[in-house]
Amino acid sequence: MERPKLYFVTTNAGKFREAEHLFKENFDVEQVNMPYPELQDNDLGKIAAYGAKYCAEELKKPVMVEDSGLFIDALNGFPGPYSSYVQKTVGNKGILKLMEGVENRKAQYRSYLGYCEPGGEPVTFEGIWHVDVSFEEEGTMGFGYDPITNYRKYPIGEMEVEQKNEVSHRRRALLGFREWYLEKIKQ
C-alpha cells in the first residue's frame, strides 16, 4: 500500500517541524506555504475548519491547517485567537509589560488542527497545554510566545522540539488527528 501523503498549509516552519516529527512513522507530510483568508472569530476551531476547507478546495488535496493561541487567565483570555497579530505588533515584551504586577500567571496554549479533503467537510482536533507566563524572556528555542512561558517551572523557550512534542497543545491536537486518520485509512 502506498504511504499516505498529507499537506500542511502553514507559513510557520516551527509548526511544520512539530507535525513532521509526530507523523514521520505513519505518513508523509509536505509543507505548503500558501496564504489563505483567515476567518475572524473568537473560536479557534471555526478558524481552523474554515482554513482547512478553503485550502482543500484551492489545492484539490487533503490538507491540514492549524490555528493556535495563548490564552492568559489574568487578561481574560487575551491574546487568544489574535495571538499571531499580537505577537507581530506587541510582541513578548508587550505581553510581559501587561503582566507587570500580576500574580496570577496561569495560561493555556490552545491548538486546533483542521483537516479537510476536497469536496468534504472539515474535521477539527483540539489540544490544550496548561502553562504559566514567565516574568522575563528565557531561552532561544521554539517560536512565538515560547520564551515568555514555562511548563512546570521549566522555560518553554529552552525546550528542544522533542521535549516540547512530549507535552504541547499542538502535540495533543496532532495526536488526536493521527489516531482518527489512521483509523479512517484502515476502512
Can you characterise this structure?
The protein has 187 residues and is an alpha/beta fold. The protein has a single domain, classed as Maf protein. It is 36% helix and 25% strand. It contains six helices and seven strands; from the N terminus they run E-H-E-H-E-H-H-E-E-E-E-H-H. The protein has helices at residues 13-23, 44-59, 83-89, 91-98, 161-167, 169-186; strands spanning 5-9, 28-32, 63-72, 106-116, 123-133, 149-151, 154-155. A seven-stranded mixed sheet has the order 2-1-3-4-5-6-7. Strand 1, helix 1 (13-23) and strand 2 form a beta-alpha-beta unit. Helix 1 packs across helix 6 and helix 5 packs across helix 6. The longest helix is centred in the last third of the chain and has 18 residues, at 169-186. The mean pLDDT is 93. Keywords: Hydrolase. GO terms for molecular function: nucleoside triphosphate diphosphatase activity. Pfam families: Ham1p_like. It comes from Methanooceanicella nereidis.
User: Do you know the CATH architecture?
Assistant: Alpha-Beta Complex
Q: The biggest beta sheet, please?
A: 7 strands, mixed
Describe the global form: globular
CATH C-level category: Alpha Beta
- Tally of individual domains: 1
Helix/strand order: EHEHEHHEEEEHH
- Strand count: 7
Portion in strands: 25-35%
Helix/strand-derived class?
alpha/beta
CATH topology description: Maf protein
Mean pLDDT: 93
Low-confidence spans: pLDDT under 50, at least 5 residues? Answer: none
Helical content band: 25-40%
Q: What is the topology, as strand order, of the major beta sheet?
A: 2-1-3-4-5-6-7
Task: Give the count of helical stretches.
Answer: 6
Radius of gyration: 17 Å
End-to-end CA span: 13 Å
Protein name: Non-canonical purine NTP pyrophosphatase, RdgB/HAM1 family
GO molecular function, one term: nucleoside triphosphate diphosphatase activity
Keywords: Hydrolase
Family: Belongs to the HAM1 NTPase family.
